[in-house]
Amino acid sequence: MKEIVIISNYYPPEKGAAANRIEQLALKLRQNNYKVSVLCPLGNYPKGELFPEYKGKFSVTENRDGITVKRLWIYPSVSKNLLIRLISVLSFSMSLFFYLLFKKTPHKVVVQSPPLLLSFISVFILSLKKKKIILNVSDLWPLAAIELNALKKDSFSHKFSLFMERYIYKKAAIVLGQSNEIITHIHSLFPEKKCYLYRNFPDHKVVKMELETTKKQPIKLFYAGLLGIAQGVLELCRKIDLEGLNIELHLFGDGTEKSQLEALISSSAEQKIFFHGMMERRDLHEKLKTFDIAIVPLKVRIYGSVPSKIFEYGSLGFPILYFGGGEGETIVEENDLGWVAKVGDFSDLNSKLKTISEYSKLDLEKLKKSVGETSNSIFDLDKQIKNLLNEGIF
User: Fold this and answer.
1) Do the Cβ atoms of 50 and 78 come closer than 8 Å?
2) Does an H or E element contain 138, and which?
3) What sign does the dihedral 179-122-73-30 (CA atoms) show?
4) For 304-333, what is the mean pLDDT?
5) At what angle do helices 156-171 and 180-189 cross, to 10 degrees?
6) Within a 10 A sphere around the Cβ of 378, how many other Cβ atoms?
7) Pure H helices in 58-155
């Protein structure tokens, strides 16, 4: 049986697209007769504190669905203090550095990037040990950090990040990119690099949902995911205008904007915005059965970024209201998955909401069926994995 290890900063029971993406990759490789192990931190995301089962432990080895998961020590934090956040990143980076340096690892290693520092350290050690490095790039850093104003252009941090970025692309044997834009960017730096598209498709066989269209209720628009800077959900709630519309907005998730969102919603009940907090995936899907449309926002257009929520909620049968720009717009428009509002343009978003509010529940029911059928035919994780295996990627 072939062996492979995956290095990631996130893994279930942690929440979010990154953890789900890596878990699906691990499970699919196992289903294709690979012996898979995962290296990751002790569970702490998105709250920035160790989950109860990991408190007081330096490392933990566990088995999750046939995957050996080795969790290493981290000083967790989601503090806005840059120094504390840096200490948190460095803590796991050092744990990983010494583990990779002194422990035996399989020849084939999948390294998730970002976080950039983590992938740099992993690639540095693994290249010294002559391993086959498969770099899985889900966002372009430091470019995304510049676009989000999280990093100052031409600063020392920016220049060092550019060095790390080029290093990991150069040393990787193969690069998997979550978008065509990511692949274009990497080829602009290393034209001969072997790059393959690897979308964050859901596993259709894991989740089956029968959506229910409730005719006597308002149209239920929902956001489910991380409440962080990139998503811009707080600004969305401040600027969305549902007055006079037959629409409610429901929010599910956790993250740095949670407390501000709760305060905003409690002070403006007339806006028809409801916050439900974080829910387990199975409970969330049960709750969403009677909902109608998924909104997928980004604060700014981030080159290379394609939110996985397009694939996940489209495959469940939800029309998408996309508000993030870039390649995601093309995917929604070309496949008739819903509506697109210009990123950052709340006038355009509110105009689209007025259009949506005029839909009958019968119209929405037909649209859900169409979106579900289209998504399930094109967002096929098994087919994608099989194609990569046929290419000899893993």
Assistant:
1) no
2) none
3) positive
4) 94
5) 90
6) 17
7) 82-102, 116-128, 143-147
Residues 6+ apart with CB under 8 A from 336: 370, 371, 374
Measured in Å, how far apart are the chain's first and last C-alpha atoms?
13
Tokens describing residue 15? 């929440």
Backbone angles phi, psi at 89, to 5 degrees: -65, -45
Cβ-count burial 316-346 (b if 16+ within 10 Å, e if not): bbbbbbbbbbbbbbebbeebebbbbbebbeb
Token look-up 């909620």 returns: 313
For residue 283, pLDDT beyond 80: yes
Q: What is the pLDDT of residue 280?
A: 82
Residue type, 157: S
Residue of 146, 117, 160 whose CA lies nearest to 305: 146
For the stretch 216-255, pLDDT in tens is: 789 999 999 888 888 999 999 999 999 889 999 999 998 8
User: For all residues of the chain together, what is the average pLDDT?
Assistant: 91
Looking at the DSSP assignment, which residues form a beta bridge with residue 252? 224
User: Distance between CA atoms of 239 and 148, rounded to whole angstroms?
Assistant: 19
The helix (H) or strand (E) run that includes residue 28 is helix 17-31
pTM of the model as a whole: 0.88
The DSSP secondary-structure symbol of 75 reads -
User: For 289-299, what is the mean pLDDT?
Assistant: 94
CB 280 within 8 A of CB 307: no
Residue 226, both tokens: 């991380």
Task: Provide the CB-side half-sphere exposure for 49 (13 A, CA).
Answer: 4
Residue recorded with tokens 């628009």: 221
The Cα 56–Cα 319 span in angstroms is 44
Contact in structure between 297 and 235 (CB atoms under 8 Å): no
pLDDT of residue 248: 93
pLDDT of 82 over the 70 cut: no
CB 357 within 8 A of CB 247: yes
pLDDT of 285 > 90? The answer is no
| Residue entry with tokens 């690639």 | 123
